[in-house]
Amino acid sequence: MPTKENMVGDNRPAQQNMEQEWLANQLKYSNVQRGKKGNTIYLTAADLTLTYEDLRDTTCNYVIHADTVCLAGKLETKGRDITINARIISSEAEAVIDASGPTANINFTTENRAKTGVAGAKPGDKGLSGANGERGSNGYNGGAITLAAERFELKGELKLIANGGQGGRGQEGGDGGKGANGIDGVDYKFNIFFPDDPTPGTDGGNGGNGGNAGESGDGGNGGDIIVGYVVSANEHYIKMESRAGRAGEQAKPGKGASGGTGGKGGRFYDKEPAPAWMDKNYIYIISETNRAKSGTDGTNGKNGDSKAPAADGRPGRCGINSEGKPALIEYTDFFGSFEVIHRQDAPKLLYFDQRLMGSLEQKSLTLHKAGIAYLASSEERLNEAAILLEWMLKTMPDADWFEELRYAALHEVHEDEAHRFEEFKSRMLEVSLQWLALRNKAAILIAQLSQGLDYFGHPWNWVPLMPFDRYLELGGSLITAAQQAEDLYKDYLSVQANQDSRVGVIKEAMSQSADKAAEITKRREWLIKERDELKHNIDAMLKDVQSKGEELQKKATAFVEALKNELRMESLKITVDLIVTGVSLATGVAPVVGALKVGGALRSAISNFTSEGKTIIIDEAFKSDKSIKKEKKEKEKELSKSLDSVKKTAAAGRALWEQGGGLVDLTKQMNRAQERFGYGSTLMTMTREEFEELLKPVYSKVPEKAGEYRTVFYEFLNVVEDYQNKASAYSAYFLEDEKLAAELIELQANDDRLRQNLGDGMDASLPLFHTYIFERFSQARLALIDFLYQEYQAFRYMTLGNERFPKIKDSHVAELSGIHADVIVKLKNMLNASDSAIQPFENIKFIFKEETFPEQFAAMRAGDAAVFSLSLDNLLIRSKIAGKAHMMVSGCRVVLPGARETDGEVHVDFAHSGSSTFLDREAKRHDFIHKSSLGLYQYEVNLQPDGEKLSFKAGGVVGDGRTRIMPGLLSVWSIKVPTVDLAGMSINEGVDLNNVNRIEMMVEGKAEAYAVRRTNENLQSYKVPVKPIWESPDHELHAMAPNSEQEIKYTVIEL
To answer: Is residue 412 part of a domain?
Structure first.
């Protein structure tokens, strides 16, 4: 990584680019986390391409956890164990994992024999014995290979080799040293006075003995190869080989050396007759046979001894059942199944299960990966998210499992096996809260999918109440916060070689967790308040929904009967059933997802999740444990209950999909909704066009009944959509609260765990520390993404544009801050390219008559809300607002003629449901969901001979476009006349609704003119240029009353 010191002068921009590139690679969720504990290296990742470089340290065992692992080429561990636990293990070609034990490192050749004995140095010296041969070492055992995957996606043979290494050859014994020869005696010598007789020869030295042969090493044992899979794919490509290591070749002993030859005795002279030509009678000639005594030859040395042959190793076990092929396993094996303790072959399988103990850190990365896929929101990526979330739920322990683990014990096994199990048990129970919290977070995401919510818990076409301009103002501070979290993570990565520095970064991150916990607690308190308020609104709306449903049922029955009578044909039964079925699916009071079929992956995920066993109830037997264990169990119980509730939410969605019969695929529908930004406010109803298409074959046959039915149907549909919006929002609040509860427990449990492990001096690069820092950064980044997502939605609401939120590459904050800057540029470009200005509208008056809406008036008199739908489906409304696009409401005044028989005030509460429908400048429909907007209008009545004179008192604001969006005119509105406020103070004294037979609602706001030609971009700017005279803070809604002396001309829409 570039250092700060060299980022100076002209090189600074280049260095910054280098750092950005380095950081982009480091921050990806696929980044490999590597740490060492004892003699084991842990590799943790979301997606990992495993190469020989990852296994470069051949002195360590390897434990690898990832969502996907792609095996590249030949991978060697040289006798070390390797365990791979993944959802998918794949290869792009032939691959090899070779854990064979190396040949013994002490292995002698025939030339490299023991030292030969030294020959006798002086005459008659004996030779020294040859050195004994050294022992050859045993061959190394093959490493154990353990692969567990849901399935294997191999594109060539995968050869798993765990042969034992060959034993080392012993050293051959050294040969003995040769004995030195003796000295020959001195020959007879004539002297003047006395001759010297010849001397005898000396003895030869004895030969040295040969050295003993060195002992050869035994062959290494083959390593066990275990391969398990859950879903059959092409695991038949896997071949296993675990042969016994051969014994080292037997060494030969040294040979004994020969003894030295004894010296010859000195020679005598023989007296011989002299030849004739000599004048002597005798001559003396040296004799070759007549000698003094010769020395004795030395004895030969003995050959060395041989050693007994070394033994071959034993072959390893190939396959769980020694069948030499992969075997089926259970999903529970992926977090360390302990059910093997109940089997007779427990000792045989326990070690296999031990190595598969799940990685909490890896599951966190998989959850992050699923979140990125969920955020992308395309059909393919949503399907990927569902697959990942289902995998997580299947391969993470639940509360039942932890409860069973507490009581579990091994019986009739060896002591070391019992020790390993107790260690496994202790380690898993230590992080039970983290496992359960992580499981809850995955379950909540599935529940969100089941409710048709986006990653952040909003409906797919949701828009925040805060307008776009406010996001532009607030973006900088959130970007700064995310940048600080990124810097902390970057610091951790840049000090990987320094334990003290890493510990410092971790402690700094932990010091921030208290602030995070407090923030979560405040958010939960706010959610509870909002949820209770929303629940009250939902309950209040249900009466109106049921009333309209009964009316629709009557009209639908009359329509179908009239159709049958008109046509007199039973052959149309199929058509009639289709219409009735379509209406039933599109208008159910239950969530309108009744018309949906969930996509294959998500359907499987939700079905498996919701059909799990009942949630565990904590046993009283643990009440006597220490207080810390008791507290932990209470938190486990809390998480368990939370998960049960989330299951019910997801199950409700599943039941409706199963009843729906499969009209629409969920993921395709979500994708379609994002591309078109929604055709219906819930994304889950059939379109109006589809409904009209259903009616076409028979519409002209009984137009009167069909028209009545059509009108009532749309009235009901609009109210039901609004009801469903609120129900969806309620589910979202509930799920967010459960998510935060799990996050809070996980945060506190992780802090405790890290403090303990740091105190034990554990390597701070291990995945548990790395993941902690990464999670802190990831959460800050997700908060920024959520903000940018809301900003983009506000931008789209303002512009009615079709641009989707940019794809997140999951790299660094600079990329995200670029999105914030880019949207400003887009707005400027759209403003400059537009040919239309924002147009105000005012004095559009809706008159709701009792004869048309008897149920609503009855509800209002009973103290409940009267609910009215202003819809494009109403042709009268459509005609009265013709020529105006993108109509948004800034003010609303509600008057109840005849409400008072005496002078006094009238206080009316009104509410915009939170579903806004627009036609853009090219007459395309756009639907948005947002939080409901509440307001009040208070006016004074002065009775005069010519009628009521009304004077403004307070209220009337709906949205100003700066601090709160202006909602759409076309929506569901509700009107209520309260008698007391929340403080218990009486209001509306003297108001009698029995005399009210009409409600007048006047609205004003902003609109656009329709385009005269098709354009790719629309001008939409809803920032109010001057402060309107009726503007006020959101919590104090009021509006300026019209001048009573000024004649006002209204556009009247009488319903």
So the answer is: no
Q: How many CB atoms lie within 10 A of CB 275?
A: 8
**Residues in Cβ contact with 742 at an 8 Å cutoff, skipping those fewer than 6 apart:** 436, 437, 438, 440, 441, 444, 639, 642
Paired with 907 in beta bridges are: 938
Given a contact cutoff of 8 angstroms between Cβ atoms, the answer to whether 189 and 127 are in contact is no
Q: Are 101 and 141 in contact (CB under 8 A)?
A: yes
- Please name every residue paired with 82 in a beta bridge, in sequence order, or none if there are none: 62, 145
Sequence-ordered list of residues with C-beta below 8 angstroms from that of 10, at least 6 positions apart, any chain: none
Two tokens at 637?
């119980």
Going by C-alpha positions, the residue among 217, 218, 253, 216 that lies closest to residue 132 is 253
Task: Based on the fold, state whether residues 840 and 757 are members of the same structural domain.
Answer: no
pLDDT at 238 over 80: yes
CA dist., res. 883 & res. 597, Å (int): 39
Residues 611 and 637 in one domain: yes
pLDDT of 457 reads 74
- Residue among 965, 861, 872 nearest 917 (CA): 872
Q: What domain range is 63 assigned to? A: 31-329
State whether residue 651 is helix, strand or coil: helix
- The vertex-152 CA angle with 146 and 157, nearest 5°, equals 85
Report the C-alpha gap between 584 and 589 in whole angstroms. 9
Amino acid, single-letter form, for residue 819: I
986: helix, strand or coil = strand
CA atoms within a 13 Å half-sphere pointing along the CA-CB vector of 581: 12
Q: Is there a contact between 317 and 242 (Cβ–Cβ < 8 Å)?
A: yes
DSSP H or E stretch at residue 721: helix 703-759
Is residue 15 domain-resident? Answer: yes
Residue 234 and residue 216 in one domain = yes
Q: Is the pLDDT of residue 414 over 70?
A: no
Q: Is residue 305 part of a domain?
A: yes
- Tell me, yes or no, whether 554 and 666 share the same domain: yes
Q: Calculate the CA dihedral of residues 749, 753, 755, 757 and round it to 10 degrees.
A: -170
Q: What is the pLDDT of residues 727-760, one digit of tens each?
A: 666 666 666 666 666 666 666 666 666 666 655 5
Rounded Cα distance between 489 and 2, Å, is: 16
The tally of domains found in the chain comes to 4
Q: Which of 282, 310, 329 is the last residue of a domain?
A: 329
For 55-98, the pLDDT digits (tens) are: 988 888 998 999 999 999 999 999 999 999 999 999 999 999 99
Q: What are the φ/ψ torsions at residue 164 (nearest 5 degrees)?
A: -75, 150
Length of the chain equals 1055
In a domain, 407, yes or no: no
What percent of the chain shows pLDDT beyond 90?
25
Per the structure block, which two tokens stand in for 19?
């750092």
pLDDT at 344 over 50: no
Residues 804 and 851 in one domain: no
pLDDT of 1021 > 70? The answer is: no
Last residue of a domain, one of 776, 800, 832: 832
Considering the domain architecture, whether residues 244 and 304 belong to the same structural domain is answered as yes
Helix and strand numbers (H, E) in the chain are 20, 27
The number of C-alpha atoms within 13 Å of 200 and in the hemisphere containing its C-beta is: 8
Residue type, 790: Q
Q: Is the pTM of this model over 0.85?
A: no
Q: Are residues 822 and 845 in the same domain?
A: no
Structure confidence at residue 444 as a pLDDT band (50, 70, 90): confident
Distance of CA 247 to the CA centre of its chain: 49
Q: Comparing C-alpha atoms, which of 857, 825, 1006 is closest to residue 918? A: 1006
- Sort 331 into a burial class: Cβ within 10 Å, 0-12 / 13-18 / 19+: middle
Asked if 616 and 722 sit in the same domain, the reply is: yes
Nearest CA among 681, 698, 696, 712 for reference residue 915: 681
**Is the Cα dihedral 103, 105, 108, 109 positive or negative?**
positive
Of residues 807 and 353, more confidently modeled: 807
- What are the backbone dihedrals phi and psi of residue 715, each rounded to the nearest 5 degrees, phi first? -60, -50
